[in-house]
Amino acid sequence: MYLLFIDESGHKDKAQNFTLGGIAVFEGLITPLRQGVDSLMREHFPAEPQQPFHASELYSLAADPNTPHFTRSHYRKLTNDLTQLILHHAAAYNAPGIVLFGQIIEKNLVVDPYLEAFEGIVARFNQFLITRHHAQDPQKGLVVVATSAQKRHASLRINYRNYRIQGTRLGNIHNLPLIPLFAEANATRLLQLADLVAYALQRYYEHKDAHYIDPLWSAFFQENGRFTGLYHRTAQYRTCTCPACLTRRR
Questions:
Q1: What is the phi/psi pair of residue 88, to 5°?
Q2: How far apart, in whole angstroms, are the C-alpha atoms of residue 95 and residue 27?
Q3: Count of alpha carbons within 13 Å of 145, Cβ hemisphere only?
Q4: Half-sphere exposure of 39 (CA within 13 A, CB side)
Q5: Are the beta carbons of 164 and 119 closer than 8 angstroms?
Q6: In this structure, is the dihedral angle defined by the CA atoms of residues 178, 197, 237 and 132, taken in order, positive or negative?
Q7: 30: Cβ–Cβ under 8 A, 6 or more apart, which residues?
Q8: For every one of its 250 residues, what pLDDT tens digit does the chain have, with 9 covering 90 and above?
Q9: 3-class DSSP state for residue 186?
């Protein structure tokens, strides 16, 4: 089984884009991946080893002159270390141990960017599971959502049920038999890694800052040279040069 952990970025009103980031983890890797994040957080926060990783909050902390123990250079090293942890587990096995997903929606193009992004990321996760079946490695999937979306609990349940009965715009999701689970990001290291993915995507699409996302592109779900696991809804689709748009136009 693969578990897809989802978190969001860009929910503030001033942001032009809304982003959902996802990290799908094979069940056997959950413990070593969690232990790896725990170890890195202890290294960077020895006085607070249970410190949760929240990219935007720690970015603000690093900019605070009253916290000399955690500066921008510390922040960059921590995010780089977490990125390398993801890449190590993504490439260390015959079958994908970790696969990344992302949905970036220009807010002015849709009524509810969260629901559109959620539908897309779930459907693309299901497509990844179909590829595992074709590779003679049938797997089911489970979606875990950060409780920042708890207020959408009822609508997500209804929409998810409709996806399973009627299908999504990208097809059926028969490989995802259970409704999404909600979990506290503070208590779940895997959701904190999903936060890193969402933050890295948002920095790229909102601020043209590729520092955080560039090393992660290779870990996104791809098929035949296309970034199947990444979708960018933009009015500039025909001229956008991001990996999602560029490879989709080929």
A1: -60, -50
A2: 12
A3: 24
A4: 9
A5: no
A6: negative
A7: 3, 190
A8: 999 999 998 777 688 999 999 999 999 999 999 999 999 999 999 988 889 999 999 999 998 888 888 899 999 999 999 999 999 998 766 678 999 999 999 999 998 888 889 889 999 999 999 999 999 999 999 999 887 655 666 777 777 777 766 767 776 777 787 778 888 888 899 999 999 999 999 999 999 999 999 999 999 999 988 999 999 999 998 899 999 999 987 7
A9: helix
Closest CA to 53 of 13, 26, 16, 85: 85
Q: Retrieve residue 74's tokens.
A: 């510390």
Q: Which two tokens stand for residue 247?
A: 């490879």
Torsion-angle region of 224 (φ positive above 0: left; ψ -120 to 50: alpha; else: beta): left
CA-CA-CA-CA torsion sign (75, 118, 86, 219): negative
Could you give the domains of the chain?
A: 2-248 (3.30.420)
- In this structure, are residues 242 and 205 in contact, taking their beta carbons and an 8 Å threshold? yes
pTM exceeds 0.70: yes
Q: Cα separation of 164 and 1, whole Å?
A: 18
Contact 52, 192 (CB under 8 A): yes
Judging by beta carbons within 10 Å of its beta carbon (0-12, 13-18, 19+), is residue 57 exposed, middle or buried?
Answer: exposed
